[in-house]
Amino acid sequence: MTSEAVLQAARGGDFLVLDHAPGEIFTPEDYSDEQNMLAQTARDFMQKEVLPKTADILKLNYEVIRETMRKAGEIGLLAIEVPEEHGGLALGKVTGALASEISAMEGSWAVTFMGHTGIGTLPITYFGTDAQKAKYLPKFGTGEWISSYSLSEASSASDAMNAKARAVLAPDGKSWILNGEKMWLTNGGFADVYITFAKVDGEHFSAFIIDKGTPGVSLGPEERKLGIKGSSTRPLILQDAVIPKDNLLGEIGKGAKIAFNILNIGRFKLGAGCTGGSKVALKAACEYAKERSAFGRKIADFGLIQSKIGEAAARIFATESMVYRTAGMIDANLEGAHDNATALKRIEEYDAECSMVKVFGSETLDQVVDEAVQILGGAGYVEDYPVERYFRDARINRIFEGTNEINRLLVPGRLVRRALSGALPLFDAALALLDEPRPSGRPSADDKGYLGAEIRLVRGAKKVSLMLLGLAAQKFQAKLADQQEVMGYCADVVTETYAFESALLRTQKKAEKDGEAAAEPFAMALKVFAEGAVSRIEAAARQALPTIESGDMLATCMEGVTRFTDREPLATIPLRRSLALMSLEKNGYPL
Rounded mean pLDDT of 294-318? Predict the structure, then answer.
């Protein structure tokens, strides 16, 4: 993970313009002994300390939740990304993502855990003063204090900068006076610390650390939510709240930098949590399918049930691949970053990838839990089985950390911005497509060697991505942001491409290390995913292009899409069946 090749390859968005070698990415097969040990510790903790208390957690028993958090702190799970000088482990983003994935064995607990270790702790880690870090981080790492976070307001929704909460300096200059109401204070009911945002003098969006019990600070009632009922979500009410002057977090007017950098980190970790949640749902579906009989047979023997299980396994494989590829890139790029400003800049480089992981992971989870309910049938619709809860818990992830619509706009917007700054040669690569010679005959005739068809299709997917981004930027220029539908389709194409290549490189890496026979299960998942991904890429491009181009140019672009996505028909039904049988044998995700 820390090789020179990885460090050179770790540039945001460059997967569109470069062909990376398998050795340049991090995969779950690269976990260190330390990471595997921590993962087992986390699984044991979930099995012994969290899952047996699910009923109490779902009743929002604050004492039980705090006690489990304290126990998580005792074994280091809350200190994974806390700096060593403040009692933490400083183990990096891969390890943090791994812990987030495992926390999703219980959805409400995952929200509590990630709310504390992520958006609750990282703002102080990256933006706090030395005094603030010394005061809060050691206690966050042990679970003695629990942190919470609130950015939104009832009137601002996804437009966080439209906040109405105000902060003014007290006449004596020793404190801030805050007024307003924040929504969705995650962990609010049992937290000791609230991280929130207000506009200084009604103009300068800024961040503040508020301690529980501060005069003028109160909480509204628990929100009655569709899912994640065991997580605390309350309004934060500020009525002439007196906050010490030193509790300003970062600089006046720099709150957006804090909010968006922390959300950026949270997005790929949310993707990790969604990966874990998908595995839990698949496990439940497999176990039920092996037990339930219909028409004299176990439903696990039915082709349409196997199709759902196999498709879920393939989709999880792609999601997991892109999550840990992204985490590995961030870790590699953070090496040598000796100050927070440098670290944040290096993390921000992957803002597009983090948004893609969030969107793709949350939609994978929704698809998997939906099919799990379908496999259980009526049993999946009642509270007697946990799949009903998985279904409700999953829905929030398409809203968390910026809605998927917002993140779809961010993906092409940030890639184009990087291109305009000269950091990503996206436009040059797009222009080069115009000079590319047209092959004679079917391109698929050149699919030779191990995974040759998939290698060619990934390159074709990149070309479709470059064509859409280049043409859209050229057509709409400064008004591209107004073309939200086009941007959404561009995001879908780029995201599917990133997932596809991540799965391909992971499979190639496995084959290079252990041989093609050992990589065969990976290859089956890759091929199943590839067929769907390329179809979705083609469909999205055909939706977007008629709004961007017309006439002969549109016809040329459409011909290009056909050529870039052309492939020999592949019998994916037997591949899904094989993946399903492996999943059923393992009682869950098989790869």
Answer: 98
